[in-house]
Amino acid sequence: MKILSLESSCDETAAAVVEDGRKVLSSVVASQVEEHKLYGGVVPEIASRRHTEAICGVTREALEQAGLSLADVDGIAVTYAPGLIGALLVGVNFAKGLSFAAGKPLIPVNHLRGHIAANYIAHKELEPPFLCLVVSGGHTHILEVKDYTDFTVIGRTRDDAAGETFDKAARTLGFDYPGGIHLDRVSKQGNPCAYAFPRPKLDTPYDFSFSGLKTSVINLVHNASQKGQNLVVEDVAASFQDTVTEILCDTLMRAAQQLGYRTIVVAGGVSANSALRLKLKRACAQRGFELYVPPLNLCGDNAAMIGAQAYYEYRSGNTAGLDLNASANMEINR
Question: Least crowded by CB within 10 Å, which of 131, 196, 253, 261?
Fold first, then answer.
């Protein structure tokens, strides 16, 4: 089954053709990063306008790369939640038009489910059940993935997502948007033990909280500036990154051991972070767990992951009519 998929939940306009949930025939991504960098973050109105301008072109290119016409595909998939509502609406409405014009089934895909499915593309042998950490700019969840369309949230952030925390800390240290990649790079030259940052204690075993950690690094930088003190940026970055990734890794390992999972999957934009990947690799090796992480080109937003998940959604009977609407906030298990 060949599925044409569309992704427009944030600041990447993407289209792809995926066969049987595992084989990518084409994948095209138009990024808006350089424009949003001028404002220090994504501007929703600008993102929506750029999606409108780019979506026809990336769709056409994806079909051309796959050597197919619209009539040749078996379904149209689209990210419909969660994300920036204006951005989502561009993709949803375009997909509905394609579905109606071509007489193809319309397959709605939750963005978080798509991130998990990126691993199905990279690791053909991977099948549920497994325990998954989804960690990105807007989300931090620990999930039991019982089947391809059966998810249970067992832990989540109470406030800021890990990716947002990285970006805010990087911005405070003077780096451009998106800050996480810059923080990761300079951390390699820093001392991760140079500064002590707080590790929150929660009353639930698998939840996260990063707002206090974010405030802590902001206060550190501002207080040093007010006192005329010089901070070693590389050391601050390394210490901050070490704290965030240690919290993520420790919580995930604790959940896996207590719930009896030996297959661990990581997904989302922050899964590209080198410190997190290294910590998880070592932790899983020590415990005899099998670890799956997507390649770097599938960590960020893309339409191939949406097409991969769409195959399993379709097999489960999850299709939509022309009344499909976008949703800025939606649980992964809905």
Answer: 196
pLDDT tens sequence across 143-200: 999 999 999 999 999 999 999 999 999 999 999 988 999 999 999 999 999 999 999 8
Distance CA 113, CA 312 (A): 10
DSSP string, 120-178: HHH-TT--S-EEEEEE-SS-EEEEEEEETTEEEEEEEBSSS-HHHHHHHHHHHTTPPSS
**Buried-state track 53-78, b at ≥16 Cβ within 10 A, e below 16:** ebbeebbeebbebbebeeeebebbbb
| pTM for this entry | 0.95
> Tens digits of per-residue pLDDT, 204-257?
999 999 999 999 999 999 999 999 988 999 999 999 999 999 999 999 999 999
CA 326, 305, 266, 167 dihedral sign is negative
Q: Which two tokens stand for residue 147?
A: 């089947």
Pairing between β-strand 130-135 and β-strand 263-267 as defined by DSSP bridges: parallel
For residue 208, the number of C-alpha atoms closer than 13 Å in the C-beta half-sphere is 33
How far apart CA 201 and CA 254 sit, in angstroms, is 14
Q: Distance (Å, rounded) from C-alpha 126 to C-alpha 216?
A: 39
